């Protein structure tokens, strides 16, 4: 076997190839992100509350980009520089308390800051909605969205599954006077620009997920539970509701339309045109 | 042990005496059981890979209708199930754990060889049940590998009655019991049967990975076992564990009472998150050992490596809720899981820095095993960093259940674990089969696999940024995804290249097994104890006496030593003698 500490060996060509491969991954990764930022990026933001999470997204992207570049550069340099050649032996060291503490505490500090910022934004997302928020109920079923608007008194009528029928898909209780003023539409979710909206989310069958990409809203619709989220749309226009949770073979067809109306009058005019239940 | 001791002088003779069935099928030998696991799981990896190719064939060109929606969801579900349960989990513990533990600790076999055999023969019917589900009416399960209730819990949600989903649950039960038997055996063996001189502080990091994995499995698998039993009862016996009241199915309201849909998610992810680390702790150990061997340099920060493995193992039980940030779980709980999830990044960062530092000032040998180990670090970093986006709960709201998540876990867990399996295979193949694999083919396999993995999964980040949800049969429903087409085509073509490259590995594996050059006892000049046994080791592993350990497994390039490695079984006097000779 070996006669000395290290047999003569030349791995420098392999080291260069592997180093170049790592550098190629690094370059391709960075370039593809730069290209994607112009073509394949987050959906245009259309809500006030979404700005905070987008800022956080950008901050994390910057920090992780630095880490991605630094680690890959380090590996590439190490591979090129320390490929075996001649009889040069490897160094023999394996502990360094200072270095280990540094790379424990520095990332830890960064992550603590991130955690605190994330907790603040999280708390805001789930804070109580403003008093002037419009209330809209969205009820999912395979594979569509029922959207219910309260009448002028702002109240949603009681529901009970025993009243469910073709003409009354949500099972509104006919004994409740609000059932006369509630408006139920299918796959049409309209809200008012610059007015906060509280969405009450339910499901009649399996778990669905109410996803509004432009508003940074996603909330699972869970049968047996009532969820609620709120946000403030701030760009009028047409948008889409996507289902983000596998809900059966028709999952991919479960699209709803959303419109942010320019003002309350436009919304009221639209609502008046919908058939009353 | 006694029985083995009697036979040890005549190991060769004994192999003759063993019947074919005793030797190859109902074997009690940990090495044969390890190989059985390896070949079975390799077969399952091919099944899972073929399903992935089908999915990509469809997703690249959805207008061709290669699959119908039900078939697509079945392919996606079975790809995940096969890869996670029947490939990664089973190969890491079943194949590597079984083969390596007794050799690395200087034992003749596992503590419970019979239980070990039972463990494999519990997995096997699970494989048959899962494969059988492809042939039942309605096909295999199609509700995602996570099988969220109540979609998975109510048979009527499947138009065909959904025998596939029930068979899915039964097959998972077999895997879980199989792993449970294995874990008990691994822990007992590692704790009780180490060679003289082999303190826990001297075992290779591969063994630490397996050891902590076994603890995680022992604590988390029973929870999923309970959950799948409840799921089977909900589907077949009319119970309501996961079925809330008043569900509307095909226009009818179900009579179930008081079930809770989120209970399944809590139980699934209480298992599921430790499971993710079950799939990565052993790989971390394997990669540590391979990098140290081929850097000819001790692993940097052994204690920190063991502590961070343990910390990750512990924290893995406190983070399951990050899978449920948008599930409707209380936002207060979400806030707690946000904190614990970010905490787990710290030990992961420590490990990465330690691997990088091990390379520095090394004397690197670029074997196929080493290339895969280095690439593991790259994949783990890429996937770990995308995990930070998902840990930050407010950002997760947007990215949750999109292709960003698919990119994340394929890098950090699936591809990383796969690369460690390749590294471990190229590294230990000589010990397993007594022959060397072809290094040139190994490098061709490596380059195409490494580029293929990045080309396949990196663009999925961008699909996620666009808000492209997972498990969509066709994205043309959504105008906001209308510009995703070119990415999907690119991903599909990359996936085909990645899949094709695996045939190079399969060819190399089987050709080398039969015709490779005969391996030396210690071809890599490595230090850990398995390299003290002949290649391949005979029944009972060691000669008349068990090996004795004198040092830790990372004495590479010790200044003044006779060679650039000082194996664990080398007595200090031998080193002194060699020093004197210089």
Quick recap:
With 277 residues, chain A is of the alpha+beta class. Chain A is built from 4 helices and 10 strands; from the N terminus they run H-H-H-E-E-E-E-E-E-E-E-E-E-H. In chain A, 36% of the residues lie in helices and 21% in strands.
List the helices and strands and how they pair.
The complex is a heterodimer of chains A (277) and B (582).
Chain A: H1 12-39, H2 50-81, H3 97-125, E1 134-141, E2 144-149, E3 183-186, E4 188-192, E5 197-203, E6 208-212, E7 217-221, E8 227-231, E9 237-243, E10 256-261, H4 264-273
Helix pairs in contact in A: 1-2, 2-3
Chain B: H1 2-7, H2 11-17, H3 20-25, H4 30-60, H5 69-105, H6 113-132, H7 163-192, H8 205-236, E1 248-249, E2 252-253, H9 261-295, H10 302-315, H11 331-343, H12 345-359, H13 368-391, H14 393-399, H15 403-433, H16 439-457, H17 460-465, H18 485-515, H19 572-581
Antiparallel strand pairs in B: 1-2
Question: Low-confidence stretches of chain A at least 5 residues in length (pLDDT < 50)?
Answer: none
Radius of gyration computed on alpha carbons of chain B:
24 Å
Mean pLDDT of chain B: 94
Order of helices and strands of chain B: HHHHHHHHEEHHHHHHHHHHH
Please give the order of strands in the largest beta sheet of chain B.
Answer: 1-2
- Report the span from N to C terminus of chain A: 90 Å
Instruction: Identify the strand order in the major beta sheet of chain A.
Output: 3-2-1-5-8
Strand content of chain B: under 5%
| Main sheet attributes: strand count, strand direction, barrel closure of chain A | 5 strands, mixed
Q: Gyration radius of chain A, to the nearest Å?
A: 28 Å
Low-confidence stretches of chain B at least 5 residues in length (pLDDT < 50)?
A: 1-15
Instruction: Tell me the series of helices and strands of chain A, N- to C-terminal.
Output: HHHEEEEEEEEEEH
Please estimate the helix content of chain B. 55-70%
Average pLDDT confidence of chain A is 94
């Amino acid at each position: 076997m070996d006669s000395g500490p290290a047999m003569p060996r030349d791995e420098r060509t392999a080291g260069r190839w592997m180093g170049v491969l790592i550098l190629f991954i690094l370059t391709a990764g960075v370039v593809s992100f730069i290209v994607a930022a112009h073509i394949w990026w987050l959906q245009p933001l259309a809500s006030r509350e979404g700005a905070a999470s987008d800022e956080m997204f950008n901050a994390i992207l910057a920090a992780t980009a630095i880490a991605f570049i630094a680690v890959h550069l380090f590996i590439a340099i190490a591979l090129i520089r320390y490929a075996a050649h001649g009889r040069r032996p490897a160094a023999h060291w394996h502990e360094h308390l200072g270095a280990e503490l540094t790379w424990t505490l520095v990332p830890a500090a960064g992550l603590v800051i991130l955690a605190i910022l994330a907790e603040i934004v999280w708390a805001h997302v789930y804070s109580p909605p403003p008093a002037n928020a419009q209330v809209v109920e969205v009820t999912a079923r395979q594979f569509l969205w029922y959207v219910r608007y309260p009448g002028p008194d702002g109240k949603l009528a009681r529901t009970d599954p025993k009243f469910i029928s073709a003409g009354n898909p949500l099972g509104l209780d006919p004994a409740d006077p609000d059932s006369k003023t509630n408006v139920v539409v299918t796959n049409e979710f309209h809200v008012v620009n610059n007015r906060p909206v509280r969405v009450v989310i339910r499901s009649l069958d399996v778990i669905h997920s109410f996803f509004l990409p432009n508003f940074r809203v996603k909330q699972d619709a869970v049968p047996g539970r009532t969820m609620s989220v709120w946000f403030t749309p701030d760009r009028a226009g047409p948008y889409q509701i996507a289902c983000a949770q596998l809900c059966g073979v028709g999952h991919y067809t479960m699209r709803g339309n959303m419109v942010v109306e320019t003002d309350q009058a436009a919304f009221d005019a639209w609502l008046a045109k919908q058939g009353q239940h | 042990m006694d029985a083995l001791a009697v036979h040890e002088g005549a190991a060769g003779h004994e192999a003759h005496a063993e019947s074919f069935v005793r030797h190859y099928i109902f074997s009690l030998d940990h090495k044969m059981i390890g190989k059985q696991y390896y070949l079975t799981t390799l077969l399952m990896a091919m099944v899972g890979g073929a399903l992935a190719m089908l999915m990509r064939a469809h997703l690249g060109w959805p207008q061709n209708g290669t699959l119908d929606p039900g078939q697509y969801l079945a392919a996606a579900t079975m790809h995940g199930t096969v890869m996670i349960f029947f490939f990664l989990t089973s190969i890491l513990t079943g194949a590597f754990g079984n083969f390596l533990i007794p050799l690395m600790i200087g034992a003749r076999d596992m503590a419970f060889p019979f239980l070990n055999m039972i463990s494999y023969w519990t997995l096997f019917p699970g494989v048959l049940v899962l494969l059988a589900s492809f042939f039942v009416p309605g096909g295999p399960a199609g509700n995602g590998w996570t099988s969220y209730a109540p979609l998975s819990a109510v048979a009527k949600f499947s138009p065909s009655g959904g025998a596939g989903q029930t068979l899915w649950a039964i097959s998972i039960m077999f895997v879980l019991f199989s792993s449970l038997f294995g874990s008990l055996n691994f822990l007992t063996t590692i704790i009780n049967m180490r060679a003289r001189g082999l303190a826990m502080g001297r075992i290779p990091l591969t063994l630490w990975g397996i050891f902590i994995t076994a603890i995680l499995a022992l604590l988390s698998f029973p929870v999923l076992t309970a959950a799948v039993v409840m799921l089977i009862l909900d589907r077949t016996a009319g119970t309501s564990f996961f079925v809330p009241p008043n569900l509307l199915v095909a226009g009818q309201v179900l009579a179930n009472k008081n079930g809770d849909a989120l209970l399944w998610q809590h139980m699934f992810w209480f298992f599921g998150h430790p499971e993710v680390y079950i799939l990565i702790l052993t790989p971390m150990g394997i990669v540590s050992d391979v990098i140290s061997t081929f850097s000819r340099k001790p692993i940097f920060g052994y204690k920190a490596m063991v502590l961070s493995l343990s910390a990750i193992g512990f924290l893995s039980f406190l983070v399951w809720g990050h899978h449920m940030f948008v599930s409707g779980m209380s936002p207060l709980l979400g806030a707690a899981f946000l904190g614990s999830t970010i905490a787990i990044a710290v030990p992961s960062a420590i490990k990465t820095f330690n691997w990088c530092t091990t390379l520095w000032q090394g004397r690197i040998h670029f074997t196929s095993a080493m290339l895969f180990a280095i690439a593991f670090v790259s994949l783990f970093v890429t996937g770990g960093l995308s995990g930070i986006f998902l840990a930050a709960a407010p950002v997760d709201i947007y990215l949750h259940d999109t292709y960003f998540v698919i990119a994340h876990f394929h890098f950090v867990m699936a591809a990383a674990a796969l690369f460690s399996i390749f590294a471990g295979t190229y590294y230990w193949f000589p010990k397993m089969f007594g022959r060397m694999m072809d290094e040139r083919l190994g490098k061709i396999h490596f380059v195409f696999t490494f580029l293929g993995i990045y080309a396949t999964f990196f663009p999925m980040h961008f699909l996620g940024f666009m808000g492209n949800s997972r498990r969509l049969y066709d994205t043309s429903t959504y105008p906001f995804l209308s510009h995703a087409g070119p990415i999907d085509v690119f991903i599909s073509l990359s996936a085909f290249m990645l899949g094709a490259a695996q045939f190079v590995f399969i060819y190399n594996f089987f050709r080398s097994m039969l015709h490779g050059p005969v391996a030396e006892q210690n071809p890599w000049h490595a230090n850990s104890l398995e390299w003290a046994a002949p290649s391949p080791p005979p029944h009972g592993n060691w000669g008349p006496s068990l090996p004795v350990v004198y040092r830790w497994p990372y004495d590479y390039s010790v200044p003044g030593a006779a060679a650039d490695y000082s194996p664990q079984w080398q007595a200090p006097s031998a080193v002194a003698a060699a020093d004197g000779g210089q």
